[in-house]
Amino acid sequence: MKSIHVWAMAVPMVLAVAACDLREQPAGMDAGGPVIPSVRGYAEGEEILFIHTEASDRQIADTLTAMMRSRVLVVPELADVPQAALANVYVFTNGIQPRRARGPLEYQADIFDAPPGTPEYRPLRAVNLVTWVNSAEARLLTSATEIQQAEATGQVTIERPGVVVNMPFLTWPGGGER
């Protein structure tokens, strides 16, 4: 499993990033400092890698911390960030449970709109909870467009609880390391 080393250098914070293998170090730390594991998700129909570092909600931060074995900080003020400064992440509350990448609620991996390279890219993400109306009809979705189509046809509902998570991309469609 790939992960990321992060060292805070100064204000504003500068991040130094290098790939490593989590199997060779204890969860959350190694000789070089803290480790933030990468997470798999989807954007524009392609698999991507990202990290989550802060969340506006304690329960979400605790869920993400347990999922990744790497601390996600609680920053309640993120919930006050203007909508124009946010992009979306879609998190599934039911549906398929693939063998590979899963989201924080143990269903399919998260889906992002506005990846890097688009004018709308923002690392801060408004959480959108996606629920299949009939979970027996759930299928793998890999783009925000597919989610919007499924919502328009009544296949899924979307709840927006007002939670914001910092989720910068490490790889993305058409860019980033692969």
What does this structure look like?
By secondary structure, the chain is mostly beta strands. The protein has 2 domains: 1-37, no CATH class; 39-172, no CATH class. The protein has 2 helices and 15 strands. Strands 5, 6, 7, 8, 9, 10, 11, 12, 13, 14 and 15 form an 11-stranded mixed sheet that branches. A 4-stranded antiparallel sheet has the order 2-1-4-3, with no helix packed on it. A hairpin with a 2-residue loop joins β3 and β4. It is globular and about 45 Å long. The chain starts with a strand and ends with a strand. Residues 1-26 have low confidence and may be disordered.
- What is the helix content? 10-25%
Strand segment count: 15
**Biggest β-sheet, characterized?**
11 strands, mixed
Proportion of β residues? 25-35%
Overall pLDDT level = 84
Structural class: mainly beta
How many discrete domains?
2
* Number of helical segments with 4 or more residues: 2
| Spatial separation of the terminal alpha carbons | 14 Å
Order of helices and strands: EEEEEEEHEEEEHEEEE
Q: Output the radius of gyration.
A: 16 Å
Topology of helices and strands:
Elements: E1 2-5, E2 19-21, E3 29-30, E4 33-37, E5 39-43, E6 46-50, E7 54-55, H1 58-68, E8 73-74, E9 87-92, E10 111-112, E11 124-132, H2 144-152, E12 156-159, E13 164-166, E14 169-172, E15 175-176
Parallel strand pairs: 5-10, 7-8, 9-11
Antiparallel strand pairs: 1-2, 1-4, 3-4, 5-6, 6-14, 7-13, 9-10, 11-12, 11-13, 14-15
Give short descriptive properties of this protein:
11-stranded mixed beta sheet, 2 domains, single chain
